[in-house]
């Protein structure tokens, strides 16, 4: 248990910025994985459904890893702290996998040559899928304990603001990750390779998280005979789950709201690059295309990928700009009201992208609008939840709460990916899919989330 005599001091602006640096690196890597995993796996032969199944790595590892790691981090006692070991090891192994991922085909050939076999034992797509799972598992190892650091080291009255700073870091990390390749192309006329972009992601994640591990000092854990008995009497996970939901009816509402929110937002993140490539730029599906057809669309494909990166950069730039104002507004007007308005803005952005598929300027503007909702999603649900967290259970609660982030992604990766794979139509030089349907379904889910948000009763500020 944390030392109750240790009163947490208010963080200055400089301390809040330093606190969120590791999350900057984490999001830099995660954004690169979001934007470029589609082109890498499609180039290795992944269909829309198979692409969705590969994306299962994120939610499955999230549901399995974060609750376990969260509970372990609550009980961990090391000279480095409770959360820091998980932050460092997660960043280390994720960085290695980020470097390997875009080189999966080359690694497959190297293994075949080493074993003196004519055909690769592990195909490039299999290695890429394994690396995706490693990346996502390690991101979850770092992310859950990082979120638990907020109630650990930041005083209660600054929880909303601290989570807003994490949104600020996420926005900044995403902007730089998404904007680097387009900037170098359009300003310097340098087309940076996908492999180089993943190396950048690996370095950013490892170095930024290492800095956080060095500079953030966790409160000491009190060791008494009474507390030792508590540690020996470990609470079963199902009882923790029951206690979590019975602590307040508002906790259930927050979780259900989070479930619908993440079905909606992942409809954007998983399918946006394919939507831009195949719907906005009218490039046919190239999974089974001949080399002649692939070469025909090679330049247009690079343009489409750069445009997708620009869209993500703009979305996250807005997230970066509005993150701290959202934290300040929620402190004044309440988390619920600010989050409700933000989700409605996201619904409008999704509907616009579903209907206006050929207007690139409008899509850029709609992604800007989506940045407001994204900034709120990254901060305010966590701020709402921290009102109900008991001391000493921060990691466990954040791990359980992550089930309602990871679980919905399974639906998107399976059912929505399957649905899109059935929406086939013929175009010149092949077939295509109705990727825009993902936004109509996402808009409906986000509208339901907004309605539930409006029904939540917040605790009165002390």
Describe the protein in words.
- The chain has a single domain, classed as MFS general substrate transporter like domains (Growth Hormone, Chain: A).
- The chain is built from 19 helices and 2 strands.
- Strand 1 and strand 2 form a beta hairpin.
- Helix 2 packs across helix 8, helix 14 runs antiparallel to helix 15 and helix 14 packs across helix 16.
Identify the notable features of this structure and list them briefly.
single chain; 462 residues; mainly alpha; Growth Hormone, Chain: A; two-stranded antiparallel ribbon; 19 helices; 2 strands
Number of strands: 2
Report the sheet with the most strands, covering strand number, pairing sense and barrel closure. Answer: 2 strands, antiparallel
Structural class: mainly alpha
Main CATH class? Mainly Alpha
Mean pLDDT: 82
Which percent bin holds the helix content? Answer: over 70%
Instruction: Assess the beta-strand content as a share of residues.
Output: under 5%
How many structural domains in the coordinates?
A: 1
Strand order of the largest sheet: 1-2
Q: Might you state the CATH topology name?
A: Growth Hormone, Chain: A
- For the terminal residues, how far apart are their CA atoms? 24 Å
Rg (C-alpha, Å):
22 Å
Named CATH architecture: Up-down Bundle
